Amino acid sequence: MSSSSDANIITLLNNTTNQLNRYLAISIFLFGIIGNALNTLVLSQRALRLNPCSWLFLVSSMAYSISIVSGLVPRFLSSWNADLTNTNPLLCKLRIFIFFNSLTIAFWLIMLATIDRWLSSSINANHRQKSTLKNAQHGMICIMIVSTMIQIQQLVCFEANLTNAPIKCYTKTVACSILSDMTFALITVLIPLLVMFILGLMIISNVRQTQARLRPMNMPIDSNDGQHTTTVVFGRQKKTDRQLLKMLFVQILVILALTFPLALSKLYTTFTRNTYKSPLRNTIENFIFNLLLNLVNAASGMPFYIYTLTGGSIFRKALFDLVKSLREKMRW
């Protein structure tokens, strides 16, 4: 009875995994590619791209698009047994390298945007002067070079046609698994999230300090009806900076919620790789891994929708201006 029950659960989970890779992956792919394409068009407008934080959002959207294509196309192809990266070693290595490298670059660019917001919100004039488009561009170049050097090990560690792994294109040895998983967990996810969290608290502190310095003493003013009113000025913080900060904080929370579970899952898979597991346990772990992998790709497709909902009038106005200009071009 137990064996029959396990077989039914295994069949159910395998079918569910196949459906996730087929339909959920396609859905994430479509809304992610469309969202990042709109992001690129909106943020590339002159009013936004000259802001260092917006410019970093723009480049990160491009990196997200690359990670979505390299991460999701093989997912739904595998549901029809048409994923060549599962059987071709070269395609397997290239796909994994491009996926992890683009994802790392995207996350680190968001971290760099957090650093820029911290600089721009500082009460120290020297710090504020460092928040420039030129510095953001230099930082982007450094991130791309460092990320490529770190992720180059994926070309060596991954192999196709593996059977004792969650997916066929996976790390070929335990040592490679530890190296790849620790790189993803620490370099791609945890370190940038930790830096973003710490700097987020420092940004809040900077904003409060600025407000405290600019807040004048409460001064009573006599009105015509003899009542007293109080006027309080909270400082002249730019509207654009406030909205960009809000967009940044929400994006940090989304990255944490959708990527951290996969980092833990990959570490668990690595350290239990040589442990005997029943077929049912293997099926359950493979199902969880595939689900979390789709969630990571969903994180790459969320920025446009985050910016639209939290970006306030500045982002939505840029979006409406883009739609208006496209309509005028279509009329011509």
Summary, kept brief:
The protein has 332 residues and is mainly alpha-helical.
Describe this structure as you would to a colleague.
The chain has 332 residues and is mostly helical. It has one domain: Rhodopsin 7-helix transmembrane proteins (Rhopdopsin 7-helix transmembrane proteins), CATH 1.20.1070. 78% of the residues lie in helices and 3% in strands. Strands 1-2 form a two-stranded antiparallel sheet. The chain has a two-stranded antiparallel ribbon with strand order 3-4. β3 and β4 form a beta hairpin. α1 packs across α11, α1 packs across α12 and α4 packs parallel to α8. The longest helix is centred in the first third of the chain and has 42 residues. The radius of gyration is 24 Å and the shape is globular. About 6% of the residues have low confidence.
What is the string of helix and strand elements? HHHHHHHEEHEEHHHH
The CATH architecture category equals Up-down Bundle
Assembly category: single chain
Cα-based radius of gyration, to the nearest Å: 24 Å
Total discrete domains: 1
Total beta-strand segments: 4
Quick one: CATH class?
Answer: Mainly Alpha
